[in-house]
Design brief:
- The chain is an alpha/beta fold.
- It is built from 15 helices and 21 strands.
- It folds into two domains: 255 residues, Endonuclease, Chain A; 173 residues, Endonuclease Chain A (Endonuclease, Chain A), CATH 3.30.870.
- The protein has a 17-stranded mixed β-sheet that branches. The chain has a two-stranded parallel ribbon with strand order 9-16. Strands 13-19 form a two-stranded parallel sheet.
- Helix 4 packs parallel to helix 5 and helix 8 runs parallel beside helix 9.
- About 1% of the residues have low confidence.
């Protein structure tokens, strides 16, 4: 987010400090999760697979996975209440230009409906291109529904959204700043941080990328040359998105419609939002869409995966302000021999969050966790790959705001081939990162320590 937007975001949320009680994250551990199933539930368009069929499918798909992956899937389902969905194709998309190209291509080919949910929708080159395309598709008879967050799009003129409405597009501002504009309960502190687009009910996109030229400024990820000192003025944005095809799209579509109804967005224009979806790939996924009324399912899934990790935990986090339990889980994993590596921002668009995250470095480094700061690019990705098989890509940052107050969306992919692609991406991020050692960290300037202590006081609200 821009400096202006970040300042506005912090100021707006600070004003509810005196009105809201601090919620807490649940204690999570495998022993406290009641498990009655031998195999996880696997959903298909025609219903759930029978127990033996599910076991046979997992045996084939996870033959090269760690022996405990099935056990983790059972634990995760028990903790979140969300089944696995089989038969999907999942494509990794890196940085804004590649993602925008794929999303605009899908919009251009739309035949029935386009549902877009985004935190930021800027009036800039990319935002205007996207808006023009949506208006054109509406002229062609495609139903278009757009939901944007009122804080995320704080800097976007109302005239931009009025133009969309004039073009026949249904537009909803999520939790408007003006309480008189909210049909239901006004909840300023609860923001829609999801990035989701579903086209024709058959193709979905989700991850960390907003509709903005800022995010379309690509990083040096997968560049043939390594960034040099002269590139410091060419700071791009490093992000990750995914394209999903197959039965899981129906779950993503349902979450969009559920959020629309929750905002009392009015009756959705009639369309075929849930067409028949045949299996188109071999990826098994779990769709975790959370909101303040739910029970922190993304956090629970993350915690269980870390606690059950046997070989590696590789996390890329744009805004990293973990709670005590998260930090302790990573340290315990490192102490039992798991390779725990974090790629965190070396350049950030939100200094307050970055300094608050720095306040955890000493404890993590002392506990054996390895920390790397991405150089040159502004890190905005929110991804992880654990034991080379459990992966997640989504909108949730590792902080209390994401886990407790925001509407967030993460997709968990349980697949070793997808895991290898995630590991490859993580290795490339390491290439452009600088390792932070404990000795060097403890030798940092006192002014930085003061910034960390001050920022840590605001960690719940940023």
């Amino acid at each position: 987010m821009s400096i202006l937007r970040a300042a506005a975001h912090t100021a707006l949320l600070a004003c509810v400090l005196a009105l809201s009680a601090c919620a807490s994250l649940p204690e999570v551990n495998a022993d406290s999760v009641a498990v009655a199933k031998e195999n996880p539930t696997i959903a298909l368009p025609r219903g759930t697979l029978a127990r033996k069929q599910a076991a046979d499918l997992l045996a084939r798909r996870w033959a090269k996975a760690t022996p405990d992956m099935k056990a983790l899937a059972v634990l995760e389902e028990a903790a979140t209440g969300v089944p696995l969905i089989a038969g999907n194709k999942v494509t990794l998309l890196f940085d804004g230009p590649a993602t925008m190209k794929e999303m605009m291509a899908a919009v251009s080919a739309a035949k029935t409906s386009i549902n877009l949910e985004t935190y930021i929708f800027d009036q800039d080159e990319i935002g205007l291109q996207f808006a023009d395309l949506l208006i054109e598709k509406r002229k062609q008879g495609v139903v278009v529904n757009v939901m944007y967050d009122a804080v995320g799009a704080f800097g976007t003129p109302q005239a931009f959204f009025d133009r969309l409405k004039a073009g026949g597009i249904n537009v909803v501002a999520f939790n408007p700043l003006n309480p008189t504009q909210r049909g239901g309960k006004w909840e300023l502190n609860n923001r829609d941080h999801r990035k989701l687009m579903v086209v024709d009910g058959k193709i979905a996109f989700t991850g960390g990328i907003n509709i903005s030229s800022t995010y379309a400024n690509s990083s040096f990820f997968r560049s043939k040359r390594k960034p040099e000192a002269s590139d410091k003025d060419k700071v791009g944005w490093r992000d990750t998105h995914i394209k999903i095809e197959g039965p899981a799209v129906a779950a993503l579509q349902w979450h969009f419609i559920d959020a629309w109804v929750d905002q009392e967005g009015g009756e959705l224009t009639e369309s075929t939002y849930f067409p028949p979806l045949a299996p188109v790939g071999d990826k098994i996924v779990r769709v975790l869409a959370t909101d303040p009324q739910r029970d922190s399912e993304i956090y629970k899934a993350f915690m269980l995966a870390i606690q059950e990790a046997k070989s590696s935990i590789h996390i890329t986090s744009a805004y990293f302000v973990p709670d005590r339990q998260f930090v302790e889980a990573m340290v315990l994993a490192a102490k039992r021999g798991v390779d725990v590596k974090l790629v965190l921002p070396g350049v950030s668009d939100h200094g307050l969050v970055m300094h608050a995250g720095h306040s955890f470095y000493d404890q993590l480094l002392s506990g054996g966790v390895k920390i790397y700061q991405l150089q040159v690019a502004v890190l905005h990705a929110k991804t992880a790959v654990i034991d080379g098989t459990w992966s997640t890509v989504g909108s949730a940052n590792i902080d209390r705001r994401s886990f407790l107050h925001n509407y967030e969306l993460n997709v968990v992919v349980v697949d070793s081939a997808f895991g290898r692609d995630m590991e490859s991406a993580f290795a490339e991020d390491l290439r452009d990162s600088k390792e932070i050692t404990l000795d060097a960290w403890r030798d940092r300037p006192w002014i930085d320590r003061i910034k960390e202590m001050a920022s840590r006081l605001t960690e719940y609200w940023i």
